[in-house]
Amino acid sequence: MAKSLHSSGHKSSSNWFEEWFNHPLYLELYSHRDNDEAARCIHTILSISGLDLKKPASLSVLDIACGAGRHALELARLGYTVTGNDLSPYLLEEARKVALESHLPLNLSCCDMRRIAANNLYVLVVQLFTSFGYFDSKEDDQLVIKNAYGLLKNDGWYVLDLLNPLHLAKNLVPYSRRSAGELSVIEERAFNGNRITKNMSITYPFGETITFNESVRLYNEEEIRAMLQNEGFTVVTIVGNYHGEQFKANDSPRMMIFSRK
């Protein structure tokens, strides 16, 4: 997720995702995200798209908002030609380190997801783990989809992984407290119109507290279908979790949409 950062009471003028995703605390808070889940997600994508039946070395893949590279690295392990794109130099450097340590070829680009240059065309573009809906306007989110369409070869796949707002509304945890290493973390979540926001207060052992805010626009099935179709995509199927189970509007935690150019 993304947000505006403010520390010691001073709010930054930058977008929240520029500040938060480029801060070392981000990975400390989310170190529990596991590679097994990423592998399961990628397996489901390749199986449903049928790309698992083709030779990996002949296929190029783009991971938009790849972060520290969990999914991009898994694709590289499987032999695909992978480019990971993110706006955070810090997270891209973490992905680069893991790729080097694991002897995996991984191309990386640092660019706003609305303006990724179409220097290469891909057979698969993935945008996973709620990495959509960060911008203030719906028009900017539409630009992301437009850009993804332009980055794909004909018959290429775009897999967009979103939270299911109906499931989230029934299962939202407004307040939680946890530890991340030596850090104490308080997280407060709330709906704000058509967005889900999360305010985080992170306290160091010596007492200093830093706060970050995340804000993601939520889309229901009808809205996101219309946005995809508006750019020329054909929505092929929607699954409700990383195991690839059928999407159920009221019960599925996720809404992973498979579209084709």
What features would you highlight for this structure?
8 helices; globular; 261 residues; alpha/beta; Rossmann fold; 6-stranded antiparallel β-sheet; disordered N terminus
Molecular structure report:
It is a single chain. The protein has 261 residues and is α/β, with parallel strands linked by helices. The protein has a domain at 35-164 and 219-260: Rossmann fold. The chain is 30% helix and 33% strand. The protein contains eight helices and 13 strands. It has helices spanning 16-20, 25-29, 35-49, 70-77, 89-101, 138-151, 165-171, 221-230, and strands at 5-7, 10-11, 60-64, 81-86, 107-110, 122-127, 152-163, 175-180, 183-192, 195-203, 209-217, 234-239, 254-260. A seven-stranded mixed β-sheet has the order 5-4-3-6-7-13-12, with helices on both faces. α3 crosses α4 (70-77). The radius of gyration is 18 Å and the shape is globular. The model is unreliable at 1-13 (pLDDT under 50).
Tell me what the CATH architecture of the domain at 35-164 and 219-260 is: 3-Layer(aba) Sandwich
Helix count from the secondary structure assignment = 8
Largest sheet: 7 strands, mixed
Structural class: alpha/beta
Helix content: 25-40%
CA-CA gap between termini: 27 Å
Mean pLDDT: 92
Strand order of the largest sheet: 5-4-3-6-7-13-12
CATH topology of the domain at 35-164 and 219-260: Rossmann fold
CATH class of the domain at 35-164 and 219-260: Alpha Beta
Shape type? globular
Low-confidence stretches: 1-13
Radius of gyration: 18 Å
Topology, number of strands = 13
Q: In the CATH hierarchy, what is the superfamily of the domain at 35-164 and 219-260?
A: Vaccinia Virus protein VP39
* Element order: H for helix, E for strand: EEHHHEHEHEEHEHEEEEHEE
In terms of DSSP E residues, the strand content is: 25-35%
